[in-house]
Amino acid sequence: MFYANITGWGKCLPPARLTNHDISQVVDTSDDWITTRTGIRERRISHVSTDMLASTAAMNALDCAGLDAKDIDLVLLATCSPSTLVANTASQVQQTIGAKNAAACDVNAACSGFLYALQNATAQIRTGMIKRAVVIGAERMTWYVNWQRRDSAVLFGDGAGAVVLEASDEPSGLLATKTGCDSEDRDILHIRNFGTNVDKYNAPVGPSDILFEGREVFKRAVNGMTGACDDVLAQAQLKLEDINVLIPHQANLRIIQAIQSKLKLPDDAVMVNIENYGNTSAATIPIALCEALEQGLIKPKANIMSAAFGAGLTWAASYIKWGSRVTPIIQPSHQLTPSDKSGLELITNASKHCI
Ligand code: COA
């Protein structure tokens, strides 16, 4: 039996920033409300589609692992904002990064998607079906945003993160995991006007929109993620004090703080970067993982817990044993094509089209 060591990690954040003050130019909100209720100060707005964000993060992760894309057997892309549904977006990523020997597949479990995909790729490596995989979380969530709805417009952002998994004898990588779905509550968080359930034959289709019952989602996110963490700790026969770093999904700073307090973890054991990026759905965890490594939060052999919650309502928690290397073999250098537009300029036209 092999392990699936994480040997590469990379991210891609589009350059255009949209601050809380910028959003308050478009819709009735304020920096004070957004910061106090969510912890978000700014988010990134992408000028390119999801596959470019994903490919850039994946190329950085491959360099970090010192691997050639041709050595990859599987590209798994967690996203709920695909560039294209048919053909799948992972196939575009496979082509862009040159992973011509890899299978390519999209995974949609919304904000839990990266942990679902990580579990899937790890299982394939551990059973010997494949040797190397790239697992990506990439989203262009702001494509769905109705800029005239202040409740959702302030929460989301764009970005991507990726990891490279390699078969290894060293007990490392994802060692315990729990995923689940409370489908009875699937309506409390959804995107409307998107998909074949839209009755386009009998009514005009309105703009897409992210709808949610904020307080319900909040409560279920805290309970779902802490419950899943407890389950994973029991599987791994670990105690909370054995966990060195928690990498939670970044949906709301108050959700993260509630989980931190339930799990009784100190501040320096919890990775938080929501203030800079907002909720990038499936991309929050791989981006936060990269930044935890950049900041020296993850040491060799660290015990990492990660937890996510999203539409479905899906949830997931994962225990990751880090390997020996915490620095890239080749420093990340891949970037998006530049854009001369600010975040506000990028969303201004979109906000006019929303009703
Ligand atoms: N700016 C200013 N006021 C706003 C606002 C905004 N952007 N959005 C909502 N408000 C107002 C509401 O209209 C409401 O006004 P009222 O009291 O006059 O009716 C008031 O602020 C409180 O709204 P409420 O929804 O009760 O706030 P909250 O404290 O529950 O925080 C969320 C709202 C959305 C930040 C929080 O519930 C949350 O993060 N939930 C989870 C979000 C989610 O689904 N994420 C995606 C999946 S992981």
Report on the architecture of this protein:
The chain is an alpha/beta fold and 355 residues long. It is 32% helix and 24% strand. The chain is built from eleven helices and 13 strands. The strands form four sheets. A five-stranded mixed β-sheet has the order 1-7-6-4-5, sandwiched between helices. It is globular, with a radius of gyration of 19 Å. The relative contact order is 0.21. The model has no long low-confidence stretch (mean pLDDT 95).
Helical residue percent band: 25-40%
Strand coverage percent: 15-25%
Q: How many individual helices? A: 11
Characterize the largest beta sheet: strand count, sense, and whether it forms a barrel: 5 strands, mixed
N-to-C terminal Cα separation, in Å? 55 Å
Shape: globular
Strand order of the largest sheet: 1-7-6-4-5
Strand and helix order:
EEHHEHEHEHEHEEEEHEHHHEEH
Are any ligands bound, and if so which?
A: coenzyme A
Q: Tell me the Rg in angstroms.
A: 19 Å
Instruction: State mean pLDDT (0 to 100 scale).
Output: 95
Q: Ranges with pLDDT <50 over ≥5 residues?
A: none
Number of strands: 13
Secondary structure category:
alpha/beta
